[in-house]
Structure formats: C-alpha cells, structure tokens
Amino acid sequence: MESDLQSLSDAYNSLEQANFQLEREVKALKSGGATPDLDIEAIKAEAREEAQKESEVELNDLLVCLGQEQSKVEKLSTRLMELGEDVDKLLDGIGDETELPEDDEEED
Predict the structure, then answer these.
(1) Which of 16, 34, 36, 79 is disulfide-compatible with 29, CB 3.0–4.6 A?
(2) If we measure between CA atoms, which residue out of 99, 87, 104 comes closest to residue 2?
(3) Which helix (H) or strand (E) holds 106?
(4) How far, in Å, CA of 94 to CA of 76, rounded?
C-alpha cells in the first residue's frame, strides 16, 4: 500500500512538473506573439482533464488495495478473537508512526 501511495505521489509530482512546463511555454508564447489560432485555454483544459483522469485511476487502485487490506484485517481480527486474543491490544499503536502529515495548504 505504501508503494502504491508513493507511486501516486510520484505520478502527481510528474503531472505538476508537466503542468509547470506547459504554463511556462504558454507564457513564452504569449510574450512572443503567439498565433491567434492557438487555443491556450483549451490546451490547458485538456491537460488538466488528462491529469485528473490519471489521478482518478491511481486513486481507484489505491482504494481497491485499501479495501483488500481492510478485509484481511477483519478476517484476521475475527480469527484472533476466536483464539482468545485481545485484538484491540494487538492493534494498539500500529500505524501511528506512518500517519500522513496534515496538509497545511488547506488551512491557508
């Protein structure tokens, strides 16, 4: 799951870099007297739509993986309870060190 998350992060960063490059090219074309038939907004919208589609595919893949892992946890928890183990005690603290940092950008 971590590798899937890293893959999604890498894909997002790649899209951000491509977007930055396209915006830089657009600015250069505008300042250099770009041809009037060049529809810059349409190009940006198309690139944005493509990036959104790719992100949705990656997100769906991650959600499938998350669902599979949750199913495993539920099955194992049930079996451990049947064997007399305290599942909550076993799970206490697991994942605390891997929590994602809060996104400060949303608070701005």
Answers:
(1) 34
(2) 99
(3) none
(4) 15
- Tokens (6 digits) for 39: 């529809």
- Cβ atoms of residues 19 and 69 within 8 Å: no
d(CA 1, CA 3): 5
Q: How many residues belong to the chain?
A: 108
99: phi > 0 → left, psi -120 to 50 → alpha, else beta; which?
A: beta
**Per-residue pLDDT of the chain in tens (108 residues, 90 and over written 9):** 777 788 888 888 888 888 888 888 777 777 775 555 566 777 788 888 888 888 888 888 888 999 999 999 899 889 988 999 888 888 887 877 665 656 554 444
Q: Helix 40-82 to helix 2-31 angle, to the nearest 10 degrees?
A: 170
Which pTM value belongs to this model?
0.46
